[in-house]
Specification:
This protein has 55 helices and 22 strands. The chain folds into six domains: 70-301, Rossmann fold (3-Layer(aba) Sandwich), CATH 3.40.50; 537-790, P-loop containing nucleotide triphosphate hydrolases (Rossmann fold), CATH 3.40.50; 808-832 and 842-943, Methane Monooxygenase Hydroxylase, Chain G, domain 1; 982-1124, no CATH class; 1139-1195 and 1234-1351, no CATH class; 1359-1494, no CATH class. The strands form five sheets. Strands 10-9-8-5-7-6-1-2-11 form a nine-stranded mixed sheet, with helices on both faces. Strands 12-14-15-13-16-17-18 form a seven-stranded mixed sheet, sandwiched between helices. The radius of gyration is 47 Å and the shape is elongated. With 1499 residues, it is α/β, with parallel strands linked by helices. Belongs to the TRAFAC class dynamin-like GTPase superfamily. Very large inducible GTPase (VLIG) family.
Length: 1499
C-alpha cells in the first residue's frame, strides 16, 4: 500500500495516461478478489494532493492536464471538513486552442487556464441515479478517461476521502468543425457525491456555473438544496416520473428510448446552447473572491505565497512596454553586453583588424572593452533589480514562490507581446517561400524577417533576463578594484543564483541573445554551488541537441520530471542548465550527487537562419554542449530528414574535436514521431543507413579538421546502432488540444531513461562541479576561435598532461639513474681488466660483449617497466587521464627513444673505456716487464746475501743493492710510448666525419692543416652568415644576423672547451674518441639552435677551429702523459721502494702493516673517485625531491619558474641571456640553484659522507669475507688480489700502483694484514670525512663531477630543443618523441630582434595573436608571396600555436617589451617599437598574473 502513491507519482510525472490504472499486486491468488486493500483512484489522487506542497501540486495538475485527466478545483479535507480552491495548483496549466473563426489564418489562442474567460457547466448528482455522470461527461468530451468512473480499474471501490471533490476539465476546440464538439471552449466541473452532503460545494458551483446538470432519479419540489439555485438547471434522468416537479427545474433531459450516442448528442446540443447564450464568464482567478466569501479556503492565501506575489507584482505590474522596461530597468544586458560579446569573439578571431598592427588592434579592443565595462559601472542599481534581489534574498520558503510568480507574470507578458509579432513573422515566412523567384523582394523580406526576429528578441522578457542582469552587475563589478564598495555589494549575487539552481530552477548557461557565456558569473555561481553542497557535487551531465521544435525540452521534462519552458511564446534560445538531486539510494549506484540536464536551442533555427553566422553559431553551441556532456542525446524528428543531415554534420565535427581532447561522451540518437510499434525492427535498414551517413560525414569532417586518421564514426566513440538508437512515438495521441499524451511516448521515454541510468552505472567517471566549471571555461575559450582550436589552453587537459609528464619524468629518471649506476660499474670493470679478471683466456673483447648483452637485458627490463607504468597510469580512474589519451603513443615512443639513446650512451661509454684500456696496455706491459725484471734481480740479490753467512749491515745491503740496480738499469732496454701526432689524427677523423657530405663540403678541407686553426679567435665572416639551406629566415639586417651567428659559434666553442678541459683533467692518455665526441657536440649544438642556422662553409671552419684548439691541447696532454710515464723515470721513482722491501725481506721484518698502509693509500684516491662519480645522481634527486622540487617536475613548470625569477630580478641582461643564450643561461641558473640548494644544511658534505660511508662498509665487508676464506687465501698477495676482485665494480685500481704493492710481497700473515688493513681503512674513513667536512667551493666541486647534475637536469628540462618558428619560445612538450611542439606562452617578435625592413622599427606582434589574424608571413628569404598565419601548420606541421584570446595571456612579455624597449633597440641596431599605451600601463603584478594564467598555476 505504501508504494502505491510513489508508483502513481512516478507514472504521472512521466505523463503516462495509465498512471491511474495502478493496482496493488497481491502475494496470493485468494487476495485477487479481496478489495479490502484496493483504493479508488480518486482517493489516491486526493490523498496525494493533501500531502503535497504547492509546487508538487502544480506539477501534478500540469501532468494530469497533459494526460487529459480532470484536475481538482475544490479539494476536500475529510479531517478538517474544509474545502480548498486549487488556484495556485492550476496556475501552471497553459492551454492552446483555435476558434473556428481563426481556421483560415492558422492563428490560435494560448493562455493560462486560470486567466481564461471560459464558461463553465457543472455536473452534480442528487440522490441516486442510474446514469453514470462521469461516464457521460467522458463521452461528451470524447475521452473515456478524463473523469474516473465506475468501470475503470478500481473505479468501483467505495470512495473514502474524495467525496466532495470538485474536478474540472476543459473542452478546447481545434477550429475544425468536423472534429470539434463545441465551437467555443467550455469548462466542465464534476462534483463527487450527493449534493445534499456537500451543500457548500454545490452552492459554489451554482455561483460560478452557466448551467447545472443534475443527475437524479427523484426530485422533491421542496428540496432545500435547490432553493438558492440562480442559474439554469438541467435535470438529467433515465426516465421521467411523477415526482419530478418544482419551479427550479427548467429543463429535463431524458434518456429513455435513446441509445447512448443519441443521448450524448442531446447533452452536447444542450451544453452548446448554454455556451452560446452565456453572458457572464468567470475566470478561475476571479472565483477565488467568491470562494473566500463562502468560507472556502484558497491555496494561494498563505503568507509566503502572497508576500512573494506582492514582490513579483511590484516588479512586473508597471511593465507596459517591454522594450522600454528592458532599456531602463535592465540596461546592462542590452547593447553594451552584446557589444562586449562581439568584442570577446573578435579578440579570438581578429577578422576586422584590416591593415592595423595586430597588437595595436588588440589593445584598441581591450580599451573598448574597458570603456564598455566602465559604462556599465555608471548605471545605478535599478528599482526593478533592487526588488528582484530582495525577492531572491527572501526566506527559503518564500523564494521559490517569488521565482514562480515572476515566471508566471513574465510568461503572461511575453505571451501577450509576442502573439502579434509571431503572426506577422509566420506570414512573412510564408510569403518568402511564395516569392522566392523575386530576388529584390526576397532581400527585403529577409531584412524584414531579421528585423522581426530582433523585435521578438527585444519583446521577450523572462526570468533569464533578470538573472542575466545579475550576471552583468557581477561581471561589471569584477573589473573594479577588490576594495571597491560596489564590488563588495555584488559578491553575494552568485550565492543567490546557486541556491536557485539547487532549488531546481533552470539558469541560463549560454545567453541566447548575445550568444555568449558570462564566464566570471557562471564560474562564481558554480563555485558557490560547490560550496553550498559541501563539495559533494559529483555530477553527470546530460545534453539534448536537435532541430528546433522537435520536442527536446518535452523529452527532458518527461524523462526527468523537470520544467524547461515549452510554451512561453518562444522556443528555447541559448542553453539552460538544471540540477536534479540524486536520492541517497541511487547515489552509490550512479556514483553521483546530481544529474545536470542541459537544454539547448534548436539547431538550424529559422529564427537564426537569416543571420550570416547561423551555421557558426550552431557549431559553437554543439561543440560546447557536447564537450560538457557525459551523455549527448541527438534528437531527430523523422519528418525532418534534410535538416537531420545538417545536424549530424555539426555533431560529427563536435565529436571529432572532443576526441582530440580526450572527451568521449556517450551518444544516443532519438528518433521522434515514429508511429509503428515495431519501428526498432523495421528501421534496421534505416539504422544501417544512418551509420553509413555518419561514417561519410566523419570522413568529410575529419578531413576538414585535419584528422584523416579518423575514418568512421566508431573511431570517435563506442557506438552500437542497435543499442544507441531509440524510436519514440509522437507525443500526442491524435490532434491537439483534446487528445492525451500518447501512452507509448512515456513508456518509450522511460525505457530510454533506464538505458541512460545503465550508462551512468557502467562509467568509471567521477567528476564534480569544479571539473564541469573548468571544462566550461576551457571549452568556451576554445569555441570562440573560428577554427575551434583545442589544445593546451584547456586547463583540465593542461593539468592532466602536466601530471602525466611529471609521472613520466619520474620513471625516466629512475631508469636513467639505474642505468648510470650500472654503467659506472661496467666501466670500472673494464678499467680493472687484467687485475680483477684472473682467467687469462677471457679477453677484453669477450668482457665487452658480455657487458653489452647484460646492458641490453637491463635496458629491455627498464623500458618494459616504463611501458607497464604507462599502461597502469592510463587505467586509472582519476587525474583526468582520458583527456590525455591521445598523447599516450607519444610517451610510448619516448620510452623507446629513451632506451635507444641510453643504449647508444652505454655502448659509446663502454667502447670508449675499452679503447682507453687497450691504449694503456702497452704502457702497462712495459711497466710490468720492468717490475718483473727488477723483482727477479732483487730476489737473486737477496738469495746471494743470505748465502753469505757473514752479517751484513744496512749500509752493506744498500751498497749491494746500488750495484745491482746500476747494473740492471744499464741492461734494460727502455722503450717508451710512441708519440702520436694529434693534429694529424684529428684531421683524419674530421675528414672521415665529413666524408658523407657534398663534394663542396669536402673540398673545403683541401689544403688545410689543423696547425693553422684555433690560435686566434673565431670570427664569422660576412659570407658565412647567409643560410643556404631551406628554412625560415627572419627579416633582419645582415649585421645583426651575423652577430647572432657569431654568438652561436662562440657558445659552441665554449661548450667544446668545457669538454676539452674535462678530458685534460683525467689521468689517462689522449684518445681519438675525444675528437669524435667533440664533433658530435658541435653537430648537436648547431642542430638544436634553430634561431641561427649555420652554413656549410661556416660549419667546416668552425670544426677546423675547434679541432685545432683540441689538437694543440690534447697534444700537450699526450706529451705530458708520455713524460710522466717514461719507463726510466717511473723505475727511478720506485727505486726507494725496492730498496726498503729488499732490506725488510733480508731482515725478515713483518711487512703486514707496511703493505696494508700501501694498499690503503692506493684505495684512497679510488674511494674519492667513487664518491665523485656517485654524487651527481644524488644531487639531481636532492633537487627533484627537496624544497621547490615542483619547479623541476615538468618542462612547463620549469619554464614558469624561470620566467617568474626573471620577473622578480627585473634585469635586462638576464632576459637577454635567456632569449639569446638559452642553454647557457639555464645551465648557469641550474648550477646556481643547485649551489643554493646544496649550501643549505651542508647538503653536499652529507652526500659525500653518505657515499664514503657506503663504500667503506663495502671495503670492510670484503676484508671480513676474504679473512674468512683462509683455505684459498695463503698470502697477502692473494688477499689483495681477492680484494681487487671483490671491489672490481666499485673502485678503479691503477695497475702500476697495484703491481708495485704486489712486488716482493710474500708474507703469509693474512690475519695480521687484515687487521692492519681494517685499521687503515678506518683511518682513511676519518681522514676523508674530515676533508669533506671542510667543504670548500661548492661550484668548483660541482663542475669537477663526471656526472654533472646541471647538465642532466637541463637535458631533462630542455626537451626536444625545438623553438617556435616565429618568436623562438622553447617547446615544452613532454617525453622525447612527441609529435607536436607547443609553448605555454609566446612573446613579442621584437624580443628576438624582428624589425620592419623599411623603418627599422622593432616589431611588437605576438605569434599567438597572428595565428588567429588575417596577417601573413614569408616562409623563406626567397619567397615571392606571403602566406596566411592562419595556415601556419601547412608549413610548420609539427607546431601547435594556441591563439591568445584572453588579452591578458601575453601580458608578461608585453610588460618585458614595454620595459626594455629602448635597450632592445640599441642592442639590435633598430629603432624602438611603437608600444601601445595599455602595454605601458602594465605592472609586474599584471605580468605575474598573466604568467600564472598561461601556465595554469592556481593560487
Amino acid at each position: 500500500m505504501q508504494s502505491l502513491p510513489g508508483a502513481f507519482l512516478k507514472k504521472l510525472m512521466m505523463a503516462n495516461i495509465n498512471a491511474r490504472s495502478l493496482t496493488l499486486k497481491s502475494d496470493t491468488d485468494e487476495c485477487d478478489s479481496d478489495n479490502s486493500y484496493a483504493i479508488n483512484p480518486l482517493d489516491l489522487s486526493t490523498a496525494l494532493f493533501l500531502c503535497s506542497d504547492g509546487f508538487l501540486q502544480q506539477e501534478m495538475t500540469l501532468k494530469m492536464s497533459m494526460c487529459q485527466f480532470a484536475v481538482p478545483l475544490l479539494l476536500p479535507n475529510c479531517d478538517t471538513e474544509q474545502n480548498t480552491l486549487m488556484l495556485w495548483a492550476l496556475r501552471d496549466i497553459v492551454k492552446k486552442f483555435r476558434l473556428s473563426s481563426q481556421i483560415d489564418t492558422k492563428s490560435f489562442i494560448e493562455e493560462r487556464i486560470v486567466l481564461s474567460d471560459i464558461p463553465m457547466v457543472s455536473f452534480v448528482r442528487l440522490g441516486e441515479s442510474n446514469l453514470s455522470k462521469s461516464n457521460m461527461l467522458n463521452k461528451l468530451l470524447s475521452n473515456p478517461d478524463t473523469f474516473v468512473h465506475h468501470d475503470m480499474d478500481c473505479g468501483d471501490i467505495p470512495r473514502k476521502i474524495s467525496n466532495g471533490l470538485v474536478e474540472i476539465s476543459w473542452y478546447l476546440p481545434c477550429g475544425n468543425r468536423n472534429i470539434d464538439r463545441f465551437t467555443k471552449p467550455v469548462a466542465f466541473a464534476n462534483l463527487r457525491g450527493d449534493i445534499r452532503s456537500f451543500k457548500k460545494q454545490f452552492s459554489f458551483l451554482c455561483q460560478i456555473s452557466e448551467a447545472i446538470y443534475m443527475f437524479s432519479d427523484e426530485l422533491e419540489a421542496d428540496s432545500e438544496v435547490l432553493k438558492d439555485i440562480n442559474t439554469e438547471l438541467f435535470l438529467v434522468v433515465n426516465s421521467q416520473r411523477k415526482t419530478f416537479t418544482g419551479d427550479k427545474v427548467t429543463h429535463v433531459i431524458e434518456k429513455k428510448g435513446k441509445n447512448e450516442a443519441a443521448f450524448v448528442k442531446t447533452l452536447q446540443s444542450s451544453v452548446g446552447d448554454v455556451i452560446k447564450k452565456c453572458q457572464n464568464k468567470c475566470t478561475i482567478e476571479k472565483m477565488s473572491g467568491m470562494a473566500r466569501q463562502m468560507g472556502i479556503l484558497v491555496d494561494e492565501d498563505s503568507d509566503e505565497c502572497q508576500s512573494a506575489r506582492k514582490m513579483a507584482d511590484e516588479i512586473t505590474s508597471n511593465i507596459k512596454d517591454t522594450v522600454k522596461f528592458k532599456d531602463k530597468q535592465l540596461p546592462l544586458q542590452g547593447k553594451i553586453w552584446k557589444e562586449l560579446s562581439q568584442l570577446e569573439k573578435e579578440r579570438c578571431r581578429l577578422r576586422k583588424a584590416g591593415g592595423q598592427e595586430i597588437e595595436h588592434y588588440k589593445s584598441s579592443l581591450r580599451i573598448k572593452e574597458k570603456e564598455l565595462r566602465e559604462e556599465q559601472q555608471r548605471f545605478y542599481m535599478t528599482e526593478a533589480m533592487t526588488n528582484f534581489i530582495i525577492g531572491m534574498s527572501s526566506s527559503e520558503v518564500e523564494r521559490p514562490y517569488f521565482l514562480k510568480w515572476m515566471r508566471i507574470y513574465l510568461d503572461n507578458l511575453s505571451r501577450q507581446n509576442l502573439s502579434g509579432l509571431r503572426e506577422e513573422y509566420k506570414m512573412l515566412q510564408e510569403k518568402e517561400s511564395a516569392d522566392k523567384k523575386y530576388i529584390a523582394d526576397l532581400d527585403r523580406q529577409k531584412k524584414h524577417i531579421a528585423d522581426l526576429d530582433r523585435q521578438i528578441s527585444d519583446c521577450s522578457l523572462g526570468l533569464e533576463h533578470f538573472l542575466r542582469e545579475l550576471g552583468q552587475l557581477y561581471e561589471a563589478a569584477c573589473s573594479l578594484p577588490e576594495s571597491s564598495l560596489q564590488r563588495k555589494q555584488m559578491e553575494h549575487l552568485p550565492g543567490l543564483c546557486a541556491q536557485m539552481l539547487l532549488d531546481g530552477f533552470p539558469i541560463e548557461l549560454v545567453d541566447g541573445d548575445a550568444s555568449n557565456i558570462p564566464l566570471k558569473w557562471i564560474s562564481a555561481v558554480l563555485t558557490q554551488l560547490h560550496a553550498l553542497v559541501d563539495s559533494n557535487s559529483k555530477i553527470w551531465v546530460v545534453t539534448v541537441l536537435g532541430v528546433q521544435s522537435t520536442g527536446k525540452s518535452t523529452l527532458l521534462n518527461t524523462m526527468f520530471g523537470v520544467q524547461f519552458a515549452v510554451s512561453s511564446g518562444r522556443c528555447t534560445r541559448g542553453a539552460f542548465m538544471l540540477l536534479i538531486k540524486v536520492n541517497k539510494d541511487l547515489k552509490e549506484e550512479l556514483k553521483c550527487d546530481f544529474i545536470m540536464v542541459i537544454d539547448t536551442e534548436g539547431l538550424k533555427s529559422p529564427d537564426l537562419a537569416q543571420l550570416d553566422d547561423s551555421y557558426e553559431h550552431d557549431n559553437e553551441l554543439a561543440t560546447l554542449v557536447i564537450g560538457l556532456s557525459d551523455v549527448t542525446i541527438i534528437n531527430m524528428a523523422m519528418e525532418n530528414s534534410t535538416e537531420m543531415k545538417d545536424i549530424l554534420q555539426i555533431v560529427v565535427h563536435a565529436f571529432i574535436r572532443m576526441k582530440e581532447v580526450g572527451k568521449k561522451p556517450v551518444c544516443h540518437f532519438v528518433h521522434q514521431n515514429v508511429p509503428d510499434m515495431s519501428a526498432h525492427d523495421n528501421n534496421m535498414r534505416d539504422r544501417k543507413k544512418l551509420l553509413e551517413q555518419l561514417n561519410e560525414m566523419t570522413q568529410a569532417a575529419a578531413k576538414m579538421e585535419n584528422k584523416e586518421e579518423i575514418t568512421k564514426f566508431t573511431d570517435m566513440m563506442e557506438y552500437d546502432p542497435d543499442t544507441s538508437s531509440w524510436y519514440i512515438p509522437g507525443l500526442w495521441n491524435g490532434t491537439p488540444p483534446m487528445v492525451p499524451v500518447n501512452a507509448g511516448y512515456s513508456e518509450a521515454v522511460y525505457d530510454f531513461k533506464k538505458s541512460l541510468m545503465q550508462d551512468f552505472k557502467k562509467s568509471r567517471k567521477n567528476y564534480d562541479l569544479t571539473h564541469f566549471l573548468k571544462w566550461t571555461q576551457s571549452l568556451w575559450e576554445s569555441v570562440k576561435f573560428e577554427n575551434f582550436i583545442f589544445s593546451f589552453r584547456n586547463s583540465l587537459v593542461a593539468d592532466a598532461y602536466s601530471r602525466l609528464c611529471s609521472e613520466y619524468n619520474g620513471w625516466e629518471w629512475t631508469f636513467q639513474k639505474e642505468m648510470y649506476n650500472w654503467m659506472i660499474g661496467a666501466e670500472t670493470n673494464i678499467y680493472n681488466f687484467g687485475m680483477t679478471v684472473l682467467n687469462p683466456q677471457i679477453t677484453i673483447s669477450y668482457m665487452l660483449n658480455d657487458l653489452m648483452g647484460e646492458a641490453s637485458e637491463k635496458l629491455s627490463v627498464g623500458e618494459k617497466e616504463i611501458q607497464n607504468n604507462l599502461i597502469t597510469y592510463f587505467k586509472k580512474q582519476d587525474g583526468h587521464v582520458n583527456l590525455v589519451e591521445k598523447y599516450r603513443e607519444d610517451f610510448v615512443s619516448s620510452a623507446k627513444t629513451l632506451r635507444r639513446e641510453t643504449q647508444n650512451t652505454v655502448s659509446n661509454t663502454l667502447l670508449g673505456a675499452v679503447e682507453i684500456r687497450e691504449g694503456m696496455t702497452e704502457l702497462d706491459n712495459i711497466k710490468s716487464s720492468q717490475a718483473s725484471t727488477m723483482e727477479k734481480k732483487v730476489l737473486s740479490l737477496l738469495k746471494t746475501c743470505r748465502q753469505n753467512k757473514s752479517d751484513l749491515s744496512e749500509q752493506n745491503l744498500i751498497e749491494e743493492f746500488e750495484r745491482m740496480w746500476e747494473k740492471t738499469v744499464s741492461e734494460i732496454k727502455f722503450r717508451g710510448l710512441t708519440r702520436r701526432d694529434v693534429a694529424q689524427d684529428a684531421f683524419s677523423i674530421l675528414h672521415d666525419h665529413l666524408s658523407t657530405r657534398s663534394g663542396y663540403v669536402q673540398s673545403l678541407l683541401v689544403g688545410n692543416r689543423l696547425d693553422d686553426y684555433g690560435e686566434i679567435p673565431f670570427v664569422v665572416e660576412s659570407g658565412d652568415w647567409w643560410q643556404k639551406t631551406k628554412g625560415f629566415v627572419m627579416r633582419l639586417n645582415r649585421a645583426h644576423r651575423r652577430m647572432k651567428l657569431q654568438e652561436l659559434c662562440d657558445y659552441i666553442i665554449t661548450r667544446c672547451q668545457d669538454f676539452i678541459t674535462q678530458k685534460v683533467g683525467s689521468k689517462t692518455d689522449y684518445h681519438s674518441t675525444y675528437i669524435k665526441e667533440l664533433l658530435k657536440i658541435i653537430d648537436r649544438r648547431s642542430q638544436q639552435n634553430n634561431k641561427s642556422k649555420v652554413s656549410e662553409e661556416c660549419e667546416v671552419k668552425l670544426k677546423l677551429h675547434i679541432c685545432g684548439i683540441a689538437a694543440r691541447t690534447f697534444q700537450k696532454k699526450h706529451d705530458d702523459f708520455i713524460a710522466v710515464n717514461d719507463p726510466r723515470k717511473c723505475l727511478k721513482q720506485s727505486k726507494n721502494k725496492y730498496l726498503t722491501d729488499f732490506i725488510d725481506l733480508f731482515n725478515n721484518r713483518d711487512q703486514c702493516q707496511k703493505k696494508a698502509e700501501e694498499f690503503s693509500k692506493l684505495l684512497q684516491p679510488a674511494v674519492q673517485d667513487y664518491v665523485t662519480k656517485m654524487i651527481g645522481p644524488d644531487v639531481v634527486d636532492e633537487m627533484k625531491t627537496g624544497k621547490g622540487s615542483q619547479e623541476y617536475s615538468t618542462r612547463t613548470s620549469f619554464q614558469f619558474s624561470i620566467l617568474k625569477q626573471l620577473l622578480t630580478d627585473g634585469e635586462y641582461e638576464k632576459y637577454k641571456g635567456y632569449i639569446n643564450h638559452y642553454e647557457k643561461f639555464v645551465k648557469d641558473l641550474l648550477l646556481d640553484r643547485i649551489f643554493q640548494q646544496l649550501s643549505k644544511d651542508r647538503s653536499l658534505e652529507k652526500l659525500e659522507k653518505k657515499h664514503l660511508s657506503e663504500i667503506v662498509k663495502i671495503i670492510t665487508a670484503a676484508i671480513s669475507n676474504i679473512r674468512n676464506t683462509t683455505n684459498t687465501v695463503k698470502d697477502i698477495k692473494t688477499f689483495i688480489q681477492n680484494m681487487c676482485y671483490a671491489l672490481g665494480e666499485k673502485l678503479v685500481f691503477p695497475k702500476d700502483g697495484l703491481d708495485s704493492i704486489m712486488t716482493l710481497n710474500y708474507s703469509e700473515k693474512t690475519e695480521e694484514f687484515a687487521d692492519y688493513l681494517t685499521d687503515c681503512v678506518r683511518e682513511m674513513d676519518r681522514s676523508l670525512a674530515a676533508e669533506y667536512d671542510k667543504g670548500g667551493d661548492i661550484e668548483t666541486r660541482l663542475r669537477s663531477l663526471p656526472f654533472k647534475p646541471q647538465d642532466k637536469m637541463f637535458t631533462s628540462l630542455f626537451g626536444c630543443g625545438e623553438v617556435c618558428p616565429f618568436c623562438h619560445a622553447s617547446c615544452e612538450a613532454g617525453g622525447k618523441d612527441h609529435t607536436k611542439h607547443f609553448s605555454s606562452i609566446h612573446r613579442s617578435k621584437g624580443l628576438s630582434a624582428w624589425r620592419y625592413k623599411e623603418t627599422k622599427v622593432l616589431v611588437i606582434d605576438i605569434c599567438s595573436s597572428l595565428v588567429i589574424s588575417g596577417g601573413s608571413f614569408y616562409i623563406s628569404s626567397t619567397a615571392e608571396e606571403p602566406y596566411p598565419y592562419k595556415d601556419y601548420q601547412k608549413y610548420f606541421p609539427d607546431w601547435n600555436i594556441d591563439g591568445d584570446s584572453s588579452m591578458e595571456a601575453t601580458d608578461y612579455w608585453k610588460y618585458v617589451m614595454a620595459t626594455f624597449n629602448e635597450r632592445i633597440a640599441t642592442d639590435t641596431d633598430a629603432l624602438p617599437a611603437d608600444i601601445p599605451e595599455d602595454w605601458k600601463a602594465l605592472t609586474p603584478e599584471d605580468a605575474l598574473k598573466s604568467l600564472e594564467k598561461s601556465f595554469n598555476i592556481e593560487d
